[in-house]
Amino acid sequence: MMKINFVNIKWLSRVAGIESDATKDILTLSRLFRHVATDAAPVASQVTGKNTDVSSRPLVDLIGRRHNYLRISLTERCNLRCQYCMPAEGVALSPRAALLSTAEVLRLARVFASLGVDKVRLTGGEPTLRADLADIVRGLNEIEGIRSVSMTTNGLVLTRRLPALQRAGLAAVNVSLDSLRPDRYERMARRPGLSRVLAGVDLALQLGYRPVKINTVLMRGFNDDEILDFVEYTRDREIEVRFIEFMPFSGNGWDDSRMVPQREAARRRGQLDAGETYVPTNLTHF
């Protein structure tokens, strides 16, 4: 299973040589991916020795891997200012008219579903800031071929929005949470709200989401001493915590001395003895 991160429609349309405004005519994107798959098939056959017939696997990359997982960023807006993600003053936002409307999101998803995508994840920014989020989730679930619609959120307004999203068909929830200590949470996010996030996680469990997944960015000298706290948090709850390496972004103050490698994180949560070889099984990408 491979993921497609869909962020900038106009850029993709230029790459494909598509002249129309793809935000208004999203169906033209099918030309891009059929073109990629067609070009990939001969190369993939040579590399893998496997049949890479485009009609049976339309979204295939250059080494024959099938893409069936689409991430759609619904907005650039966010109600937090996490240090590794956004400056304290925020960022310049695109005009609202430049964002995909509900109808355009669904039209885009139908194109990808026709090319073999069956899982969609909604992200942001913060997707719960979209007033039409439940309508989008409901519409995605009505598309033939889409089997799962999930969401990554900071969890601040889950207690208010999750019941309606579940009724609309939201299948899974990932929550970004970098500290279980209120003072640290506020320092990282530049906003208060830890109790609201934890209440949202509890509600997700009460509503039957299994498991609730938590994404935690580890930063040396900030929250790397909470690894075992997060492990303990999962002891009696159906929660999976994924520790994510601190990654460089423009202006986020990254340097390698603040990064906690996955091997070190695994050892510190007691999964490895000193002499064992660590093979990552759940690499996470932004």
Feature tags:
286 residues, alpha/beta, TIM Barrel, 7-stranded parallel sheet, 9 helices, 7 strands, 15% strand, globular, disordered N terminus, disordered C terminus
Topology:
Layout lengths: L1 E5 L2 H7 L13 H20 L18 E7 L28 H13 L4 E5 L9 H9 L6 E6 L4 H11 L3 E5 L5 H8 L4 H13 L5 E7 L8 H7 L5 E7 L16 H7 L18
Parallel strand pairs: 1-2, 2-3, 3-4, 4-5, 5-6, 6-7
Describe what is shown at a glance.
This protein is α/β, with parallel strands linked by helices and 286 residues long.
Give structural notes.
By secondary structure, the protein is an alpha/beta fold. It folds into two domains: 1-65, no CATH class; 68-268, Aldolase class I (TIM Barrel, Alpha-Beta Barrel), CATH 3.20.20.70. 33% of the residues lie in helices and 15% in strands. Strands 1-2-3-4-5-6-7 form a seven-stranded parallel β-sheet, covered by helices on one side. α3 runs parallel beside α4 and α4 packs parallel to α5 (158-168). It starts with a strand and ends in an 18-residue tail after the last helix.
